[in-house]
Amino acid sequence: MANRFVINVNGKRRRVDATPDTPLLYALRNELKLQGPRFGCGLAQCGACTVHLGGQAVHSCTTPIGAVGDKAVTTLEGLGQVNGTERKLHAVQQAFIDEQATQCGYCVNGWIMTAAALLTKNPRVSDAEIRQGLSGLKCRCGAHMRMLRAVKRAAKTLSA
Amino acid sequence: MNDIIELNAVSRRDFLKASGALVVAFGVPSVLFPESGNAAESKEPEKVPLDQLDSWLNIGADGSVRAAVGKVETGMGITTAFMQIVAEELDVPFARVKIVMGDTATTPNQGGTGSSNGIMTGGKALREAAAEARQFLFGLASTRLGVPMEQLVVKDGVISVQGATDQHVSYGELIKGQHFNLKLSGQAKTKDPKNYKIVGASVPREDIPLKVTGEYTYIVDVRVPRMLHGRVIRPPVMGAKLVSLQEPTKFPGLVKVVQKSNFVGVVAEQEWQAVRAAQELKSTWSQSAATLPNSYDELYTAMRDMPIKTSKVGENVGDFDGAFAGAARKFDATYEYPFQSHACMGPACAIADVSNSGASVWFAGQKSYRLRLAIADLLEIPVEKVRVYWYPGPGSYGTNDADDAAADAALLSRAVGRPVRVQWMRADGTGWDPKGPPHTIRMRGGLDANKNVVAWNFESRCFSGTLRAAGALKAGDTLAGQLMGIAPPGGDEFGLGAESYVFPHKRKTSHILPWAQSLGTGLRTAHLRDPNGPQTCFASESFVDELAAAAGADPVAFRLRHLRDARDIAVIKAAAQQAGWVTRASPIKNAGGPTAKGRGIAYAPRNGTYVATVAEVEVNRDSGEVRVTRFVVAHDCGFVINPDGVKGTIEANLIQSMSRALYEEVQFDRTAVRSVDWNTYPIVDMTQVPNEIDIVLLNNTPDMPSKGAGEPSTRPTTAAIANAIFDATGARLRRVPFTPERVRAVLKRQA
Q1: Alpha helix stretches (DSSP H) within B364-452
Q2: ipTM above 0.90, yes or no
Q3: Shortest alpha-carbon distance between residue B112 and chain A (Å)
Q4: B75 in contact with A at a CB cutoff of 8 Å?
Q5: Phi and psi at residue B212, to the nearest 5°
Q6: Is B217 near chain A, with CB under 8 Å?
Q7: What confidence tens digit (pLDDT) does each residue in A83-93 have?
Q8: Does residue A89 contact residue A95 with C-beta atoms inside 8 Å?
Q9: Rounded CA gap, B249 and B268, in Å?
């Protein structure tokens, strides 16, 4: 039976009625209409559903809503700074635009959210560390080269 | 946010209402007709007449421009290129142009997207439509301003008298939101490409800012009022028949279990409820009715021995058999290429709303007009009662699972009388999407005493790449239809490959083999990015390399010796030059050590585009692991609308085709496909991509006709990598993918 959960999403407290086993992804997409995180596999194998939970990049497709608690959830929509209607993109988002780093873009949420978490921990990362840090993500179109360049560009911005 | 999103795009009527538009039409150029003349398709009533300017272009009273095209955006940025073309030809600001796609009620039928021909056909049609509109508007302005058309100039959608800029009138003022009501004359003069300002420039893609913030609307984001959620349940083994179905009792939110023969689905109020209901549904199925080969060894052996369904001879020059018999040295090699999955980032999603008044379907496939026919056939309703809307999908590389999900949604919606959104689960997407067909290709060739190629024979044996039609046309083309027992029409598509080598005795033959197991299984063969291209090019471009090595010749020099076409020659020379290619025969004389390094080249023409790719690789002799460290590509697709956009597309095609060459092979056993997720169908990851991709665009000048980009650069990659592995190690890989196990095995055999 459905329970009522109050979760902290992109700086706001939101109510969600769902069974505790409902993956956070479904709650975000269907109840809260946040379409940044996407269903790719439901198996924590591709990263398309990535959100930040308490600052960590996690797979929202395998995180039950019952396990979210009061940890802050950040989605692609809440990345960067949002003040009313003003929005300042996160350095990683801006770098993806600067490098024109998508094809279909369905997976891009995972790359941006994972890279943002990675660079928050340490913006002075090497090429090998970036590659390793993003190795759990899939991109079927093959936009890797530009995404790698974009993450390096963002790292430079964030470590400047 | 509202629960209901705006349903597809601006129709003409809405647009004209909102912006006060005008509309234009011409003599229909041949390119506007569907790619293949299909009888079913030609019977279809035209709602969007191709010879009317209004079908292609509308201009609002506010000067905004709506351009409708019969192609869709598959993620390569063609929307931006179309905007550039329209903005250029009409002389309006880029941002003022809106492109609409894929709606059978409001966009022209150009046969949909396929074969990387979007710019060639869609772009050409839009350019001509815009020129027609511009000419018409100049006529109106001439009357309004009282000066001959020759004295008028236009900038940013405002026509003024040359030298008297205070005399001006805007497009919007001229049109006042009216239709053009103009038949396309086919006579309007398009701009001299020498004067292009925005076409040919690397304009940033319009979609990327939306994609990086989550604002871009994909098919999975579409919601319609009263929508329910569906999931499908597939047979556990191929050919299994449903024996019994036990509905979960009192399952929360479950609306209905839907069954039609072996098609089974559930519909629930909420999405997670549908997922859970599908998992909980108890179904029993019969044993597998047919058997698959147990391994690729068995499959390829079977393919060599199967009776041929039908054959086609492509090129046939001289007398191959006689020349081969008399050759000083003879070579015979067979190349094998597996089933591969589209494995799109998200499994298919579609929505259908079926009622007594007709059917609306939202999907993300490449050919809306074809799907419309298939849905009408499936539901047994007149095609006029079906409207198909298109939204961007999670990647699209040919004939993926999009049409199949649309058919599922239509059946489920009809059963519950409400709109139903279906999204496949990962195992449905990887396990049941249509697959790129396997090939086994035997190459034979002979050298004379002077090491010249005197005989060349290409003989492919494959399953047709259109057993599953490229764009579902009939109910039987869809998986749901097949599970309901409707036979797929199927088609024969030969794999003859493309190269332009000039040999005195040369023959190319393709045999199509019967593939009964295609029916209702996860091994339905269909178009996957560059249909048959990587397969056939792998064989011919590897084999030419084998002959070069046997002749002790440099692979670049050897190819050039046998080519006459100037554009073939130019791409090979340009790629070699950019790569810093050192002339020598393969394999390289290595000093030894665990890591062998080598380079390889392959080239391919494709529908007027020419590509040569150099791959530089490192092979770990102990582990057998292959890593491409650099690609160099010379790409000639004529004049490029957006160079950075094309380079992005080429880079992506290289990575995807590298992934197919090194990692991808659909696994199956006697009874079922066993590649069902990213662990069982691995693709490239970030640690495996090259350090560098270097792209040279050739003939990118306004006088050269624009040809396709995308699929052409997929074609030579496999062979370029195989040739580089040979150069590095002397080991010749003739079976895709080049997994560490296979590389180790070939290295071991060689030692």
Answers
A1: 368-379, 402-416, 426-432
A2: yes
A3: 18
A4: yes
A5: -80, -10
A6: yes
A7: 777 789 999 99
A8: no
A9: 13
